[in-house]
Each structure stands twice: as C-alpha cells, then as structure tokens.
Amino acid sequence: MTRLSVEMLAADAVEPITSAGHAQLGIAVLAGIAVIVLLITRFKLHAFLALTIGSLALGAFAGAPLDKTIVSFTTGLGSTVAGVGVLIALGAILGKLLADSGGADQIVDTILAKAGGRAMPWAMVLIASVIGLPLFFEVGIVLLIPVVLMVARRGNYSLMRIGIPALAGLSVMHGLIPPHPGPLVAIDAVKANLGLTLALGVLVAVPTVIIAGPVFSRYAARWVDVQAPDRMVPARASEDLEKRPSFGATLATMLLPVVLMLAKALVDIVVDDPTDMTQRVFDIVGAPLIALLAAVIVGMFTLGRAAGFTKDRIA
Fold first, then answer.
1. Distance (Å, whole) CA 230 – CA 160
2. Residue 114 pLDDT class (50, 70, 90 cuts)
3. Are 194 and 179 in contact, with CB atoms under 8 Å apart?
4. Domain boundaries, the chain
5. Is the peptide bond preceding residue 165 cis, with omega within 30 degrees of 0?
6. Are the beta carbons of 52 and 8 closer than 8 angstroms?
7. CB–CB of 33/50 below 8 Å?
8. Which helix (H) or strand (E) holds 237?
9. Residue 215, CB-side half-sphere exposure with 13 Å CA sphere
C-alpha cells in the first residue's frame, strides 16, 4: 500500500482542485482517507482499488466536477508512473532476486554469527538497514519475521528488544533513502538532486535509526515484555536451496546502485562542468535507471546464478 499511496497522493497534487474553500478541502482529505481505510480494513478491498476510489471520493467531497476529478487523477498518476514506474519495477526485480536466491538470509546469518548479547539489537538494526536498501518494506517484513522470532527465542530476548530495531531499519530505509518509491516520487515532484538527496537521506537516517531502534527498544522492552512464543518460528525462504550467494557478492550487488548514484553526485560537485567527459559518463551510469538496471543485471549472476537458478528461474 505504501508505494501506491504515494503515487495516488502525487496524482491528486498534479492538478489542484480549487472549487472549495480551505476548510472543505481539509474535510475532503480526511473523508477520502477514511474511505480508503474503511475499504481496506472493513471490506478487504485491494489497496489499488481502494486508493482509486478514495481519490475520486476526495474530489467529490471537495466539490469538484467529476470529469475534472477524473482528469486530475489520471494525469497525475500517469506522470508519476512515467517518472518512477520503471525504477519501482527494477527495484522489485532486484528485491525478488535477493529474497529468492537466499542472499538476504546469507546477510542475516553472517551478521548474526558475529553478534551476541547486548550487541544483538544493533545487529538487527544493521541487518534491517542493509536488507532494506533494495527491498520494499512489506517484503523486508516477511523476510525478517522468522529471523526476529528465531533470535528472540534462542537468545531469550524480548520480542520488543529484537523486533523494534528490525522495524526501525526497514522503515527508515523505505522512507528516506532512494531508490525506494517514496523518496523517488518526492524527488521527481520537486525536481530535487537525487545524489544530494541520497547523501542527506543517509545522514538523517543514521541517527534516526539508532534512536528509533536499539535505544527505544531498550525502554519498550521494559514497558511491554513479550517473549517469543513456542512453535511460531516459520520456515525461511532459503531452507530449500542447495547453495546461497556469498555475503560479499550479495552486499556488493545491493550497494551497487547506491554507490553509482553517490559517485555521480560527487563528480557533479567536484567537476561541475557539463561538457567534461568524466561528468558526462557519471551522469549516465549514476542515473537511477542505469544504476538499478546495472544492479539487476549483475544480480542475475551474483545472486541468481550463484544460487543455482536456471535461466527460466531467473526470468
């Protein structure tokens, strides 16, 4: 729902509806959100359909003609998808490769093998932050639930002490760091510099994830001391695989698009000459489309082939 809601909100913002006063517009926004929440929670409607209906309801509540509401919705959604749709698709492909190949599990197991005791919450936030770079929030949650339950059970930790750092790492990456849909839509909407946004996002993400993760979980575990229940550790995705990608190859593949985009931003600052060949090269390889495409192509070999996938399985 997260990435769809961002697109829908951007769609509504493209052609502002000015047929109502500020108070009515505020009420219309709240009513539109209420419709979306009600359709999803009460009637179990698919998020895309609920968001579409809720966006149209918002326009109706605001007093706009229905035909203009439809035009505003379709124009905004179309421009948003044109700007970030391909990037979201490439990010989903990379995330799927990471999950199915066992690369995510390899990173989890490697980091957990090095951590223990008081360092475990910090290990969990590190795992979630690294995995959260290419994965959508909901995919990361599915991958980390077995890990959180397993670590909490075996180490006799409170679920709050282990689970909150994992949630913090995923949430911060999803909300602040490109190439996630939210930051990409915001960058596209205000025409911001992607490399600079990425650098500032990392700068803000580090203290945020520390405070919201390991630090807060220490107090949350005292307030709500929940232990991992017996017989509730689900199977992990890679348990049926004969082999998994190496830790180094997996980490390098995940960080490749981030490194390329940051390199472009650095070259833009240092060179600052659009006619310079070096800057022109980095403008191409550091573009989000090329950076993610490169990571997907590399991931086919470092993740897919390394896990023993056939060409059909990779496709």
1. 16
2. confident
3. no
4. 2-87, 101-314
5. no
6. yes
7. no
8. none
9. 7
